[in-house]
Amino acid sequence: MGERVKTSSRILPATLAELRRSEFSEQRLACRTVRDEMRANLVCRMERGESLFPGIIGFDDTVIPQVVNAILSRHHFILLGLRGQAKTRLLRSLTSLLDPVLPYLAGCEIRDNPYAPICRQCRMLLAEKCEAAPIAYAPAELRYVEKLATPDVTIADMIGDLDPIKAARGGLDLSNELTIHYGLLPRAHRGIFAINELPDLAGKIQVGLFNIMQEGDVQIKGYPVRLPLDVLLVFTANPEDYTARGKIITPLKDRIGSEIRTHYPAALELGMAITRQEAWLDRSTRGQVCIPGYIREVVESIAFLARQDKKIDKRSGVSQRLPISCLENAVSNAECRSLRNKERYVVPRVSDIYAALPSLTGKFELEYEGELKGADAAARELIRAAVGRIYTRYFEGVNMSRIVQWFDQGGTLKLRDEQPAAEQARQLGAIQGLTEAAARLESDLPKDPAVEASAAEFVLDGLYAHRRISRNEEVGYLAEEKKRETHDHEDFPPRGHRKQYQ
Fold first, then answer.
1. Confidence category of residue 143, pLDDT binned at 50, 70, 90
2. What local confidence, expressed as pLDDT, does residue 7 receive?
3. Sign of the C-alpha dihedral, residues 21, 27, 30, 32?
4. Is residue 231 within 8 Å of residue 185, measured between CB atoms?
5. pLDDT at 461
6. How far apart are CA 216 and CA 219, in angstroms?
7. Surface-to-core class of residue 131, CB atoms within 10 Å of its CB (0-12 exposed, 13-18 middle, 19+ buried)
8. How far does Cα 414 stand from its chain's mean position?
9. Strand-strand pairing, 5-7 and 10-12
């Protein structure tokens, strides 16, 4: 006898006889496929006005409606898009459209339907125990099987093979169906099977998917047995991979019901929402993390500008992981400073974004022009351009002549990366007009020297980005004409961020 399983506030049937009298009746389960199940659950959620794919941001008007249409049409589908476009995350969220639990014959490797088993072992179990056959339950998350396609994947991995060890232990002939070792696809029976990076799958392995997609069955090795699997097949692919590493063979593409294109966030606010959701920023250190809005905007703008930059290969794309990693790294640099100086708040500055260069340079591929300059130089240019763009959003039309005049009259300012916030705030407060300009930013953040220092530094970096003032490694910030007089054309900050504001 099977054990009674309790889920939520109800006890689930433990045997086939109990199952027949429950909500999992034969009428409901015998002929209902996984695609029927997902379609029905999707319809219910739409009728109730519920969110379909929580956590997927920026696809509400583009990708999500196409995925909905594919599920309502009971299609196998593929998501095409560049790296870092939430393709895998979207596929994994499909489990929310599956039933909370699914009954199957206990002990079955492929979670067979109790009313219509397809494997030999389950048919033997029913013949032996009849209505007393034990029932087990699979939660929705276990009904999702995912495989990253690599060139070394074999048909045995995907479909199955004979298992001589099973045959030897059971004293069975190799032609016996009980010697089958099931691959990933049969193990996804009554669930979702996802293949990531489909073009990387060898052509002869892609051929092995033909039958399951069209006729709904597979044949394992030389066994004269066709398994009528119930599975939804979903794929992801990067269009660049079609020529760079492999291709999706035409007959397989023809069998995929829907081809859905993903994309990067269309607006800065959407990108910031994704980064806020995904970035790890809740640190358990002494200082409380406070991230000014303009810092978030600068970090996100780096990704948007990189996707438009002629020096960066657009075919490879610029992943949404770039701003996520950059913000995490910038906060970590600010955290180091806060710990050294025993400060109450961890507040990132523009200098911390420059310190996060290692999180940027590996996130994009350079064209020939960019390779001549190098990844570090390209990343510094992106940061400077991003600061200039966000500075314009906050200060367009604002008179900054008093600040510029302070430098024109011979004033210079050199900041250090590890400088305490209170000391830097006093130093910046000596510049006429700077405190008033910085006060226009972030009124919702705590009144603290770390916040004031970050805002004032952003103003100066914005003026530098717009070439109203200059800066170099030796002197720091200075008047723009002084830079021309000293013929100092080195970009700033320099390669080693620990030396940049000394």
1. very high
2. 53
3. negative
4. yes
5. 96
6. 11
7. exposed
8. 39
9. antiparallel
Q: Does residue 245 carry a pLDDT above 70?
A: no
Q: pTM here?
A: 0.87
Judge whether 407 and 459 are in contact, CB under 8 Å. Answer: no
pLDDT tens by residue, 396-438:
999 999 999 999 999 999 998 888 999 999 999 999 999 999 9
- How far apart CA 127 and CA 139 sit, in angstroms, is 27
Could you give the domains of the chain?
Answer: 5-261 (3.40.50.300), 268-499 (no CATH)
- Determine the Cα angle at 321 with ends 317 and 326, to 5°: 115
> Could you give the C-alpha distances from 491 to 77, 179, 379, 472, in angstroms and in order?
48, 68, 11, 7
- Taking CA 340 as the corner, what is the angle to CA 338 and CA 343, rounded to the nearest 5 degrees? 35
Calpha distance 338→461 (Å, rounded) = 21
| Alpha-carbon span 364 to 379, nearest angstrom | 10
pLDDT in the model for residue 427: 92
pLDDT in tens, 455-496: 999 999 999 999 999 988 888 899 886 544 544 444 444 333
Q: Which residues pair with 7 in a beta bridge?
A: 10
SS3 category, 135: strand
Of 368, 477, 379, the C-alpha closest to 431 is 477
Q: Are 300 and 293 in contact (CB under 8 A)?
A: no
**For residues 76 and 257, is the Cβ–Cβ distance under 8 A?**
yes
What share of residues in the chain are helix, strand, coil (percent, to 5)?
45, 15, 40
Q: Return the half-sphere exposure (C-beta side, CA atoms, 13 A cut-off) of residue 174.
A: 8
Does residue 346 contact residue 281 with C-beta atoms inside 8 Å?
Answer: no
User: Which pLDDT score is estimated for 275?
Assistant: 97
Q: How far apart are the first and last CA of the chain?
A: 75
- SS3 per residue for 456-472: HHHHHHHHHHCCCEEEE
